[in-house]
Structures are given as C-alpha cells and as structure tokens.
Design goal:
Elements lengths: L2 E9 L6 H9 L9 E7 L6 H10 L7 E5 L5 H11 L2 E6 L4 E3 L3 H11 L3 E12 L24 E2 L14 E3 H7 L18 H11 L3 E14 L6 H13 L1 H6 L7 H23 L7 H28 L1
Parallel strand pairs: 1-2, 1-4, 2-3, 6-9
Antiparallel strand pairs: 4-8, 5-9, 6-8, 7-9
Helix pairs in contact: 7-10, 9-10
C-alpha cells in the first residue's frame, strides 16, 4: 500500500546515536494530513541497534509505523537500496543515524515534493553540531562532512559540475529512483577502513541523466552530529583522499564513450596543475596546517581517481 512519505535511517552500530533521531521523529509537527512511516535499516550491526528499535516500537504511535529491517550487504549504497525496496512512501527521506531533524522536517520535505513535481531529489540545510571545537578555517572543508548551508532561497543543483547534495537528509521521489537508478552500484560507500565516497552522487547523476531535477530546499533543516574523532587529522586526510578518488568515476557515469578518454586526461592534467600550484603556494604549511593538508590530499585523490576508475572497471568485468 502506497503512502505519502517514508523516513529511512540506514545505520551501522547506531545504538547510541539512534535514540536522538527517533525522539525527534516521534515529535514531528504538521504531519496530521500526511501518511508516513519510519524504517530503520540495520546494516549488519554488531551492537544493540535491533534492541533499541524494538524498545521504541513498544511505545511508538500507530499513526506512523516504526519498522525495522536487516541488510547484510555492507555499505551505505546497499542499505539505501534496501530502504527503497522496503519503503511504501512516494517520497523517501534519508537520515543517517547522526542526522537530527527539526520538528517540521517531514512536513517541509513533503510540501516541497508536492510543489516541485520535476524534482527527483532534493536536500535542505545541514548544520554541524560539534563535540569539540573544529580547527581554524574549518568552513573551507565543512562540505566534505556533509555540512551544507546554501542560503534562504530554493535553487537547482548542478549535476553536470558535480555540484550536488550529500546523501544525509536527501529526499528522493521513489518513482524517480525506480525508473532511473540501476540495480547495481559502482560506488558502495565507506566500508571498513575505506573512505571512498560518492555513492550518493552516483544515484543523483542517474536521476539527472533521466531528466529529473535536483533541488535545494532551505526550509528543511537537520543537525549533523560530529564527534571528536571526525575532526582528527588522520580521519580527515583519509576522508579527503577517499572523496577525491571517486572524482573520475563520477564524471564517467553519464559520459558517452568518446568522452571518456577526454575526461580521463582532463582529470589527470587538471589535478596535476592543482597539486603543483598548491605545493608552490602552501609548501611551508602542509605539514603543520590541517586544512592545507586536507586540500592537498583531496587533489592527490582526484589525481589518482582515473587509475581508481580503471581498477574498478577491471574488477567489474571479472
């Protein structure tokens, strides 16, 4: 049975983080005329995630069911794909287990989807809530941690330039996903020690190729909880390189055959230039300044991304 809206929460070992998200969903306002549900997709957790959800289900309102499903294939791409399969909503709003929505997030998301029928996906404002003070000039790289504040007016994103919203807080029109997104993923998300990202962009690029629009809705707000570990140098530098490694792969998704060698070459040459300019400008700061080191790692990952693309392509053919 189809309903209006599904909130999907993929989680891995989220027993500690989930309660804050579920409490906010339980107290949503403006949803009286909306039929909706919440699904927790447990992506192979080894903690008490299942127990936490079961305890919430005991006292959960029947007006918007709280459901639980288990996805054994590790990776955020697989968890989100499972969410789409399980969701009964015409719209699916993805919240990570560290994304805390404001009280009208569901109603604001559903209204926007109704007002913009060509929107295959849309995202809102993502504000950072930090366990410790972020480093100086952190705003230069905050988008890499899915912190996005793009102003007070709705606007279209630019998929052709890889200017897209992250998966955190993203709302997808289920029809658009089912018609446009293939049943396999090239990029599976961060698994284990790998921080290669891009699985959310991959989905959006398929929607764009099929003719759907990707929008920014400033009326949707979530708070992204950032623990101290994600501000440590080692994590951030791995994140920068992993994000860069997806660059060429993403540009290839909607490319025609004759365009692929050009993209390959441009990615190598463009990032070679960025690395040289960055080194000449900041060589005295790279070892001591975290933001400078982050930028270099992103450029280096982007430079290496054509070789990562070739490696993935060979792997997919086997």
């Amino acid at each position: 049975m189809s309903i209006d809206f599904t909130v999907a929460i993929p989680t891995y070992n989220g027993a500690i983080r989930l309660p804050k998200v579920l409490d906010k969903l339980r107290s949503q306002t403006g949803t009286e005329q909306i039929s909706w549900e919440v699904i927790v997709i447990d992506n192979n957790s080894t903690d008490e995630t299942a127990k936490v959800v079961k305890e919430y289900q005991l006292n959960w309102s029947s007006a918007f069911p709280l459901r639980y499903t288990f996805e054994t294939e590790q990776g955020l791409a697989f968890a989100r794909r499972r969410a789409v399969q399980e969701a009964r909503g015409n719209f699916i709003g993805f919240l990570d287990d560290d994304n805390v929505p404001v009280s009208d997030w569901v109603s604001a998301a559903y209204k926007f989807g109704q007002d913009y029928p060509k929107a295959g996906a849309f995202s809102g404002q993502i504000h950072g809530e930090f366990e410790v003070e972020p480093p100086e000039e952190f705003k230069k790289i905050q988008a890499f941690l899915a912190i996005r504040e793009h102003g007070s007016k709705p606007h279209l994103f630019e998929p052709q330039n890889l200017r897209l919203p992250p998966g955190a807080g993203l709302v997808i029109r289920k029809q658009a996903w089912c018609e446009s997104v293939p049943n396999w993923s090239i990029l599976t998300g961060r698994v284990g020690k790998s921080l290669v990202a891009g699985e959310d962009y991959e989905v959006l690029l398929h929607l764009y190729k099929a003719g759907w629009e990707i929008w920014y809705n400033p009326q949707m707000h979530i708070a992204h909880q950032i623990p101290c570990q994600r501000l440590e140098r080692e994590y951030l530098l791995h994140l920068a390189r992993g994000t860069g490694l997806a660059t060429c792969q993403l540009r290839m998704i909607n490319a025609k055959g004759w365009q692929k060698p050009i993209i390959f070459a441009r990615t190598l040459l463009g990032n070679s230039r960025r690395l040289i300019v960055h080194f000449l400008k900041y060589r005295q700061k790279i070892e001591t300044d975290l933001i400078t080191a982050f930028e270099r790692e992103f450029f280096w990952g982007s430079f290496m991304s054509p070789f990562y693309f070739l490696q993935k392509s060979r792997g997919n053919k086997k």
